[in-house]
Fold Mitochondrial tRNA methylthiotransferase CDK5RAP1.
Amino acid sequence: MHPFQCVLRARRCLRRGPLASVSWLLLRTCRAHSSVPSFACPSPQRQQEDGVWKDFSSRLATGPTFQDFLRSASVPPEQPSSSEVEDPPPYLTVDELLGRQRRVYLETYGCQMNVNDTEIAWSILQKSGYLRTSNLQEADVILLVTCSIREKAEQTIWNRLHQLKSLKSKRLRSRVPLRIGILGCMAERLKEEILNREKMVDILAGPDAYRDLPRLLAVAESGQQAANVLLSLDETYADVMPVQTSPSATSAFVSIMRGCDNMCSYCIVPFTRGRERSRPVASILEEVRKLSEQGLKEVTLLGQNVNSFRDNSEVQFNNAVSTNLSRGFSTNYKAKQGGLRFAHLLDQVSRIDPEMRIRFTSPHPKDFPDEVLQLIRERDNICKQIHLPAQSGSSRVLEAMRRGYSREAYVELIHHIRESIPGVSLSSDFIAGFCGETEEDHLQTVSLLREVQYNIGFLFAYSMRQKTRAYHRLKDDIPEEVKLRRLEELITVFREEATKANKSFVGCTQLVLVEGPSKRSAADLCGRNDGNLKVIFADVEMEDATDSGLRVRAQPGDYVLVKEMWQSLNSANPGSMGGVSLR
């Protein structure tokens, strides 16, 4: 092998491992080729004269080969979780992978998936000997779990890094160096741009690389920046039991799948979280059972496209009967066959604990077969609330977005859902000012808001993201001031219509799961009803439903019947209700 080929191999490995490991590989590769001149690989005679070669050659003989580096660069298969670190990479010892009680401070930005990712990351670090802290000043490691869905979300992180810069520079020399890491979608999207722009960042870990956090932090301890932003086709963290970040929590998120195959033209998710893959049903059921045993009263099944769940983990599942798409809907990918579908999972989860509420988010409208709707109607503990992202009320814009449906098909699905599940609460997402959106397109979205009357809404101005289909094929031609004006108009109409829709709860008695004290007043408690509307009521003694002679005060995790519901006077939040507790 030519000496320059040796160097080339070493450079390739440099992207995957520390410099010391690369130089070791370079020497081992050169040693195998006698044609390499002495300036590239010192002769054995010279080393023997120094009295060093004998010991060094024995170390090389037992050291890593080129294949070891290839294996360490690939995404490792899921393994049973263990409190002990097994099979460390050749350039680190087991002791170096341990946290040695260093304190970790975690900040979460963005969606519910990031909340769940934070719990997964902490579970992995906790088993490696790290401690958790809620005090930023005492942290030895600061990890930001980030979002890239819009430019504003990323700017928030840049601003936060600027704030943390002074904290790192003022670190006392008597303490261990402060390490700062970027986790999640922003790390995946920007990669080396973060490391180049902010030298203070020590590690990057994409959504599929949290298992690698102990190694990344160990490498950072040597003063190098470390990154793993490899996306996986099979990583689901099925064997990692997330650690609840709030000990007083009454609810939990359970991730059932990761990634997305829909490839909507505006969306960055397939590029930051990868392709769709689902957890085995058995691992999901085990996690929900444990949460029930811990006393939690509500779980939300999570996924970027949660109702396209498909468990193909066992061969016999491939013979499962396929379910149909919603009528009038299509996909951007080839039809998939077999596997246990979302209806099966929802059925099994709802049977674990009849007193545990079940929610799920975020679904795609295309994946609502009658089997799912029937389950929601029949099971008392599956919440009668469905998130149905529309994004636009214009069929022309929906086609440009590659949503796979028209306005007419979407409205027909709305009617079918309301017929199938009487009293269902609906929420949705909308984007204002997408590429090429005309004033007429905007008015069609306004009319859809009026026609459907959603109970809850999430509305945003369009933010173009690199790598998306829209970035490559469409033009972001709507001025920012027009986007913001249209967004304000959508918000105004949504609030008006949501106020009307939520009037149906006025005067009714609702079963509310208590979450804790109200942020408005220490004299009040707050919780959520079946439709996911916030309900605020007085913190007073009430009759215990299990003992009519006992008077008690409601605690977080209790179910309370709230009567004489009325709407909040806060027009900015039409999804907030008031009431009087019954028991």
User: Anything to note?
Assistant: Residues 251 and 298 are 4 Å apart (CA to CA). Confidence is low (pLDDT under 50) at residues 1-49, 69-83. The chain is about 35% helix and 20% strand.
